[in-house]
Amino acid sequence: MERDRRRGQHPDHDNLFSLASQQAGYFTAEQAKASGFSRQLVSHHAREGTFTRVRRGLFRLTRFPSSPYEEVIAAWLGFDPKKAVASHETALQLFDLADVVPTTIHLTAPRSYRSRKTRSGVTVHTVLKPPGRNGVLIRYGIRVSAPARAIAEAAAYGTAPEQVIRAVREALRRGLATRAELQAAARRHGGLTEKLIQRAIAEVRTK
């Protein structure tokens, strides 16, 4: 700690706490470094119990409880939390909209990230037009595709039709998406995706 002071580094505890608080208490070693925390200082706080080391390069403020979606948080933070969002079946899981257990963690990022390497178990979908402010929500501290968009993404990806229909039904029942939002998201994909979501909306209307 004294070494950090001698080097002129001043750890910004408030900044790191504010950032981690927005991420369910989690932060990366890179984020800590950006807030003025050297690797030695992060290790010191981990030994003291202020930080909990989750895995290499990922930490949690100890006062925050661990998340059941730690794997998703690790994948999202490890890619680019400012540009990437959890999407497709991963988003459906985070919103508890369907009985899906994704075999991979789905992230969506701008097309410029197409060549970026990802770790095993993570699938990155790139798009020319990333979701705008209305297309992203925060869930468990993670930036996630909004329900209507996530349902359309999953349908286009090949999620089982019965799960897509259930997701539409749940989203409407819980007020997480409107029919207009679902229809607009479906139109962006067109084809079978649009037909499936329109069918799901029609089924909800008849019940």
Description of the structure:
There is one protein chain. The chain has ten helices and eight strands. The protein has 207 residues and is α+β, with helices and mostly antiparallel strands. The chain has two domains: 60 residues, no CATH class; 136 residues, no CATH class. A hairpin with a 2-residue loop joins strand 2 and strand 3. Helix 6 crosses helix 7, helix 7 crosses helix 10 and helix 9 packs antiparallel against helix 10. The chain is elongated, with a radius of gyration of 20 Å.
In short:
The chain has 207 residues and is an alpha+beta fold. The protein has ten helices and eight strands.
The sequence of SSEs as H and E is HHEHHEEHEHEEEEHHHH
| SS class | alpha+beta
Low-confidence stretches: 1-8
Q: Widest sheet: strand order?
A: 1-3-2
What's the mean pLDDT score?
91
Measured on Cα atoms, how large is the radius of gyration? 20 Å
- The portion of residues assigned to helices is 40-55%
Number of helices: 10
Distance between the termini: 64 Å
Count the domains: 2
Tell me about the biggest sheet? 3 strands, antiparallel
- Beta percentage is 15-25%
Shape: elongated
Number of strands: 8
